[in-house]
C-alpha cells in the first residue's frame, strides 16, 4: 500500500467520523448541464451547410474575443501574423499535450479544425465584431459569461484527456515502472499536470513569445510571475483533473475518497446499469457536468475579481489626472491675479517761481537716435 493511499484512507476515516458530509447535492442543474454538454458535443451547427460540432464553434468564438482583447492596443502587423497568433492561442494546449503523449495533434490529421477556426476568425476578427463586442459589453458581464464558457470548454477538454492517455504509450510505460499499479490505472500526478498543460499552454506560448505584439520578443508569461490570479488557470485545471479521477475512481490511492464521496451523492447521479464501468461511482456525463460546474464557478469568481481590480486601477488613474488638472487650474488663476507695475518713461518735476506759485513741467522725452546707415 502506497503512502498516498494510507494518507487518503486516514483522512477519509477521520472526516467520516468527526465531520460526516450530509449536505444534499442539487441534481437539477447537473442534469441540465449534462444534457447541454451532450448536445453541443454531438450536434452540428447545420447538417448541410456547416456540418461541424457546435462545441468547436463555441470555443472558436470565445477565443476570438480573448484574442481581440489581447491585441486591442496592437497597431499594424500583417493579417497572416494575426491569424497565426489566434491559432496558437486556440490550439496551443492540445498540441503540447499531443506531443507529450506521442500522438499527432488534431489539426495535423484532420482538415475540420482549419475550417471551423479560420471561418470564425474571418467572420469576427477582420470585421471588428469581436472588438466591438468587448468594447461595448459591460466588463463584469463579459468576464462572468466568459468564465462560464471557459469552464464548459475547459472542463470538457480535461475530462476527454483520459481517452488520449489510454491510447498512448505513456500509460504502458508508467505501468511497467510501477509494478504495484494495476493495469489501466492512471497516475494522479500525470493527469493533474496534463490537465494544467492542456488548458494554459496556449496562453503561456502567446505570453512567452509576445505573439500578440507587432514585434515578437521573449517576455515572462503571467503564469511564471506568480500570484493566485496568474496561476489560477493552471491550478484550477489540475484540481478539476483530480476531481475527475475521484469521480471515476481511476486510481487506487483515491479509492477511499471516492467511496466517501459516493455516500454523499444522490442516488439519481449514481450508476444504475451494470453495463457501465463498475469502477466509477457516478455516470460519466453527470461527472463531467460536475467538473464543468465547479470549474465554471471558479473562473466566474476570477472574472468578478479582475473586474473590480480593473475598476480600481481606472479610479486611481482618474484621480491622478484630476489632481494634475486642479494644480494646472490653480496656477492659471494665480498667474491671472498677479498685477504687473509698468514704469513710465515720463517723470514729473515741480519748479517753484519767484511768486511762490509752482508750475508742473514734464521732462521731455528723448528723441530716438538716428540709426547709422
TrEMBL record:
TM helices/strands, residue ranges: 83-101, 107-129, 141-166, 186-211, 223-247, 287-310
Region spans: Disordered: 342-373
Biased segments, Low complexity type: 351-362
Compositionally biased tracts (Basic residues): 363-373
Domain of life according to the entry: Eukaryota
Secretion signal, residue range per the UniProt entry: none
Keyword annotations from UniProtKB, A to Z: Membrane, Transmembrane, Transmembrane helix
Entry keyword Membrane: yes
Protein name per the record: Transmembrane protein
Amino acid at each position: 500500500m502506497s503512502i498516498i493511499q494510507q494518507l487518503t484512507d486516514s483522512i477519509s476515516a477521520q472526516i467520516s467520523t468527526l465531520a460526516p458530509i450530509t449536505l444534499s447535492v442539487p441534481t437539477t442543474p447537473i442534469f441540465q448541464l449534462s444534457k447541454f454538454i451532450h448536445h453541443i458535443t454531438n450536434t452540428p451547427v447545420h447538417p448541410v451547410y456547416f456540418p461541424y460540432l457546435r462545441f468547436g464553434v463555441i470555443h472558436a468564438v470565445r477565443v476570438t474575443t480573448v484574442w481581440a482583447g489581447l491585441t486591442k492596443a496592437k497597431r499594424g502587423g500583417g493579417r497572416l501574423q494575426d491569424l497565426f497568433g489566434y491559432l496558437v492561442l486556440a490550439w496551443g494546449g492540445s498540441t503540447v499535450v499531443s506531443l507529450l503523449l506521442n500522438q499527432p495533434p488534431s489539426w495535423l490529421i484532420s482538415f475540420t479544425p482549419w475550417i471551423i477556426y479560420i471561418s470564425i476568425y474571418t467572420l469576427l476578427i477582420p470585421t471588428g465584431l469581436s472588438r466591438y463586442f468587448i468594447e461595448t459589453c459591460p466588463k463584469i458581464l463579459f468576464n462572468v459569461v466568459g468564465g462560464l464558457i471557459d469552464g464548459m470548454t475547459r472542463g470538457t477538454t480535461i475530462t476527454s484527456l483520459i481517452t488520449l492517455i489510454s491510447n498512448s504509450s505513456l500509460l504502458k510505460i508508467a505501468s511497467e515502472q510501477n509494478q504495484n499499479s494495476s493495469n489501466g490505472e492512471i497516475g494522479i500526478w500525470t493527469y493533474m499536470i496534463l490537465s494544467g498543460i492542456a488548458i494554459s499552454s496556449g496562453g503561456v506560448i502567446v505570453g512567452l513569445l509576445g505573439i500578440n505584439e507587432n514585434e515578437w520578443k521573449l517576455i515572462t508569461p503571467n503564469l511564471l510571475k506568480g500570484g493566485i490570479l496568474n496561476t489560477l488557470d493552471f491550478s484550477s485545471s489540475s484540481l478539476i483533473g483530480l476531481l475527475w479521477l475521484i469521480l471515476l475512481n481511476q486510481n487506487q490511492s483515491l479509492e477511499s475518497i471516492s467511496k466517501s464521496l459516493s455516500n454523499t451523492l444522490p442516488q439519481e447521479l449514481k450508476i444504475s446499469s451494470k453495463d457501465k464501468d463498475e469502477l466509477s461511482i457516478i455516470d460519466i456525463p453527470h461527472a463531467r457536468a460536475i467538473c464543468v460546474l465547479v470549474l465554471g464557478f471558479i473562473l466566474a469568481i476570477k472574472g468578478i475579481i479582475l473586474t473590480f481590480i480593473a475598476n480600481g486601477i481606472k479610479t486611481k488613474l482618474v484621480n491622478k489626472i484630476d489632481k494634475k488638472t486642479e494644480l494646472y487650474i490653480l496656477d492659471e488663476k494665480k498667474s491671472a491675479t498677479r498685477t504687473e507695475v509698468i514704469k513710465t518713461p515720463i517723470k514729473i518735476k515741480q519748479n517753484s517761481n519767484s511768486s511762490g506759485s509752482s508750475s508742473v513741467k514734464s521732462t521731455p522725452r528723448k528723441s530716438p537716435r538716428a540709426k547709422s546707415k
